[in-house]
Amino acid sequence: MPEEGLAEAFGVTEMARAKINLALHVTGQRADGYHLLDMLVTFADCGDRLGFLPAQADAFTLSGPFGETLAGDGTNLVLRTRDLLREQLGALAFPVHIHLQKNLPIASGIGGGSADAAATLRGLMRLWGMDLPVETLASLALKLGADVPMCLESRPLIARGIGERIEVVPDLPAFAMVLANPLKGVSTPEVFRRLAGKNNPALHLARGLSGTDGWLTAIGAARNDLEPPARELVPEITVISQMLQAQGALITRMSGSGATCFGIFSTMAAAQEAAAALHGDRPDWYVQATETVSGGM
């Protein structure tokens, strides 16, 4: 279903923006097995879209380039989110038809499922005309996954702990960016298992950072601790990084646990040109030129 058709067919629509880990430092591990992380996160002007409409009975439909892939997944976070929110709201949560336009690759390190869950929370709250306290909504989001509270914000932020301790970053500028993924799955547990060290230096950003150049320097000095083990599992991650650099990317890095990589470019025109070149070389990959949101969105 085209984006404009989604807006026409459904009374409420929400965008599930791609989540980009500009930095991801693994700083420890809790007794329950969860890893402690420091992350600098931003969100892109591309992603999945969801539509919500009152219905006689609950319904869920899919479209988009990766909709068919998701159709066979019995653990869809959208449906889990609907059911969890309905438990909270009770009889006021009438039946709903949810449509997911799946534009992002599955399990690709850019928060697709978590962003869908967060968009479902936002959309159903609007459709059902309900308003929950911030603390309650945050608790529901965390039950759905460690990345869901970040995606509920969908704006530049620093997340610590397992992702639940969030601090917004109003000074982070927008970046022209290319996302590329070889459409090969990466096992997040296996990436963490191969991680050489789990007590790495924390993320430290200088106070008063301003301007694109200052932020690029800070981002360049950070890292993604999951990238080395992910490269062992999916060698294409190294190839993508090299291709982005060859196209003039100022910074290249893997997002999340992979396999999506991003390249930051000086202008949107440069990003679009690079994306076209990568797509020409590897039409079988997911390649997307986009712009991230600014902290002052």
From TrEMBL:
Single GO BP term: terpenoid biosynthetic process
Pathway field: Isoprenoid biosynthesis; isopentenyl diphosphate biosynthesis via DXP pathway; isopentenyl diphosphate from 1-deoxy-D-xylulose 5-phosphate: step 3/6
Class in the EC hierarchy, top level: transferase
Span of domain GHMP kinase N-terminal: 76-152
UniProt catalytic activity: 4-CDP-2-C-methyl-D-erythritol + ATP = 4-CDP-2-C-methyl-D-erythritol 2-phosphate + ADP + H(+)
Active site residues per record: K19, D147
Keyword annotations from UniProtKB, A to Z: ATP-binding, Isoprene biosynthesis, Kinase, Nucleotide-binding, Transferase
Domain GHMP kinase C-terminal: 222-278
SUPFAM superfamilies: GHMP Kinase, C-terminal domain, Ribosomal protein S5 domain 2-like
Enzyme Commission number(s) from the entry: 2.7.1.148
Binding locations of ATP: P105, I106, A107, S108, G109, I110, G111, G112, G113, S114, A115
Pfam hit, one: GHMP_kinases_N
Annotated family: Belongs to the GHMP kinase family. IspE subfamily.
Protein name, entry field: 4-diphosphocytidyl-2-C-methyl-D-erythritol kinase
Gene that produces this protein: ispE
